[in-house]
Specification:
The complex is a heterotrimer of chains A (498), B (103) and C (489). Chain A is mainly α and 498 residues long. Chain A contains 19 helices and 2 strands. Chain B has one domain: Helix Hairpins, CATH 1.10.287. Classes of the chains: A mainly alpha (498), B mainly alpha (103), C mainly alpha (489). At the A-C interface, strand 1, helix 5 and helix 6 of A face helix 16, helix 17, helix 18 and helix 20 of C.
Amino acid sequence: MTSSALLPVAALMTSLMASVIIFALPEKNYRLRTLINLAAAILKLTLVVVMVWGVMQGREYEAAFTMVPGVEFVLRADALAMLFAGLSALLWLLTTIYAVGYLENSPNRSRFFGFFSLCVASTMGIALAGNLFTFFLFYEMLTLSTYPLVVHRGTPKALRAGRTYIIYTLTGGAVLLLAIAWLHGLVGDLRFQEGGHFADLAPSLEGPVTMIFVLLITGLGVKAALVPLHGWLPQAMVAPAPVSALLHAVAVVKAGAFGIIRVVFELYGLEATSDLGLLMGLAAVAAFTIIYGSTRALFQVDLKRRLAFSTISQVSYIVLGLCLFGPVGAAGGLVHLVHQGIMKITLFFCAGNYAETLGVHCIDELDGAGKRMPATSMAFTLGAFGMIGAPPLAGFITKWTMGTGALAVGMDWVVAVLVASSLLNAAYFLPILHRLWFAPQSRPWPEERRWGRLETSSWLFWPPMVTVVLTVLFGVFAALPFSPLSWVELIVLREVAL
Amino acid sequence: MTSSLLYAFAGVALCGIGLFGFIRLRHLLRKLMAFNLMGSGVFLVMVGLAQRQGEPDPVPQALVLTGIVVAIAATALAVVLIRRYYHLSGQTTLDESPKEPSQ
Amino acid sequence: MTLWLMAGLLFTPLAWAVLTLLMDFRKGRVVTWLGMLVQLLVSLGLWAVVAGDGGFHYALGGWQAPLGIELRVDGLAVTFVLLTALVAAACGWHASIYLDPAKSWHRYFWPLYWFLWAGLNAVWLGGDLFNLYVGLELISLSAVGLVALGGQAAALRAAIRYLLAALLGSLAYLLGVALIYGQSGSLSLAGIARLTEQSGGDPGLAFALMLMMFGLALKTALFPLHRWLPPAHGIAKSPVSALLSALVVKASFYIAARLWLELGDELGSYALAQGMGLLGGTAVIWGSWRAFLQPKLKQVVAYSSVAQIGYLFLLFPLTWGASEAVSMQAQQGITLQVISHALAKAAMFLAAGNLIMSVGSNRVEALAGVSRFLPFSLFSFGLAGVSLMGLPPSGGFAAKWLLLQASLGSGQWWWLVVLLLGGLLSAGYVFRIYRASFVEDSDIDHFYHPPRSLEVIPMILALLSLGLGLAAESVLSIMALPFEEGGGV
């Protein structure tokens, strides 16, 4: 295997191997397990950074073999893949640290971390997949590895949530498989390619290809939480906070959104999708999801559930961005992949901190938490402002880019959606902030724990600090060459050849 | 009607009677005897249909011999099982007895 | 060299069967371990010969057919021989630790096991219709005996029911053989195929084919002739259930498939092909539904077998009147399905046996806490489940993919529904087991932990089934020309 094939495979294998080793370790070897977890995460991050460097210089990394007659298994590191892979690798490291602290002294940690590593391996595979077939392989693997994490606690509520999750995701998977098999039967094995394949489509194929698009979006939309396929996400919040943070706010929903990006840009091609009249439909669904998610969030009393509906709403920004037929809009959508990930994970980390340190799960219990846990609350505040779109944070960059992109192509209604959504975000975030900082503590904390000098355990303290700093940096320094925005502009340049 | 065809028809008739008994009869030993009747019918068909121009054809005879051996082995196994089953459960049919404790 | 290999494959199991008849359980198991090693080596050797030089015909004792026994060794046959060696070795090894040496009748496990192995090899390598009959009978009688080893009245009832069904099936098959010989004067598949090509579809031969299909379908437990399978596979000892579900039902299917591929185009009809596919599809849905409802763990797995067997019968509509490419895809898909199901189902039954032994009950609800204290056994069960659900990267997924392509290619889009729905329904009963095992009811480990070797065996089989999807291309290329006739008699 040449070195260009080795890197993607190695990136995948780090977490696969870590998973196998962790499963084999006895439950009580927690120090060794933590060591392996962190070592694997750091190794993976290093490999991804190396690949990012190479891709920036125009190098290609690819590994392929024929898996089943007629179809290939392909891992390819291109610019788009590196965007998602970089996000996943970085956030995996932070979430691992967070999870070690969160699950301290709870049972079944070997099982948890083993499946956690498998999830990350699947996410890396999704990022690096070079054709739909390989993408599907890892997509289903992600479903299977996330189930044990959702039902980790073993309570009846967790088991019910797990069952809902599986019904939604496996059905979505079956629809996706149908679409992929059908497409394969029509046009053979297509690799993802910048600009897509269907620019010059034979008219006889237009009907089936349109149908296949609808099926693909449906299958991918389950994970991407497009309404009405979103029902599993709020229920999955019963999982432990690290799971909700990384997986359901970042990895799983982003996998769905990433799939949609690949399909629209690199399978069909933006122009072809628009010619077939599909872009408008997708935009409508995305816009509806944005408004619906934000509205439902207003009525949630549990903090994590409110964040879940916020995720449903925010992930559709990415899809909406794609539908803005132009490079600026596409850039806005793509960069939100990174920005929303960073901001949302901050919020979930903070929510987890409140739950672990104070026993607080509902919003009305948050009164005065700002005084007790100032750093966490500051992180939460900045994350919330980022979501609302306040400058100079990352969220503002997204909304600004998308807004200008929409105006450039004459889709003014999108701007209205963005504004409405920002107002709704404010409506459900500001009351929380008010309670945190300005409301005096009305009753004793449900379950308080103390950890010495820091307001909470150091494993739980630092990850949200890191992510909130990134939120600020990505916003303030968006114009610099190494920011996500610049990387995205590089991608869009290659993808949207208009 | 040649004699071989006669054998074949007789074989089919035996087979039919055996099949009827196999399905309808409930007592296990009777089922077994019906099976043997069916087997004989099939062997008769084999011998009857497979005569070619009156010359002795060794192939079907070899087949029938093998078949008889197999049938004997199967019958022996069946008898042993039925006996043991009767010994353990006191029943001679396959119906579930209502007072038997569930597994 | 080939002489020794062929002798090894057929006569070693028979010799071992006789040997172990004279011993008790413990000595028998030591002798069996030796025999398993021999068989594995011989199977690998034969595989190497075929991979190197291609397939060949072999006349036993130098006597030519039709009175002599002629064996046909091609890529597909040798793949199944190797599969049998793997799965049977795993099940035999598991049985040697799992079965209780104190029960004196358990010593009959070994002779029956070896007769079963001999019969299986005879079927995979068989070259003409009658030898296939003998192999089938040997398999059936040994399998019935193995089921009856359970000892209680319920096991005997299941064994008798199985025996009656098997005998009826064999007789139908034999009658069909008799009719075919009467019409065509030949017993070899190639000879009959040539005859039908020249003379076209003959109603007598068509009727004979239908009879044989009926008999073989009964032995493969195709819906609605499946009633004997759940009691037999559910009540038998776990290693026996594994052998039965993984290999025994596949032998009769193998013969049916060979018959169909040689003779089906001429003697079959669109109605027959679609009918068998329809019964297969119903089996998938009905079996999965029943599996979901069963309170006992092994009954869930047994009904799962009924469902998975349904997939196999999609071979019939997808190869009848289809183009070369589509037919090849269907054959490849079905072959992968057979191999992956054999590995996964054996793993599942062996793991279920371990779980039942640890938990002390065979009910699904009793599995609470297993995922915490017995993760290894549960994991093998879980991995096997992934293959049954047809999720990537398992062999079950590769099979499903090829069958989906074949359905699309031949325009028979209704099988897509069966394939996709079947996967979802199987997820229903597999996740039911997972869910039951994730329930946390106590912090105390009150389970009996089985010996490590018992847990490792199903894990190996499950991993093989999982990895089959990744190696699908290489496995299929070994088979070269699946089901095709090399030379003739």
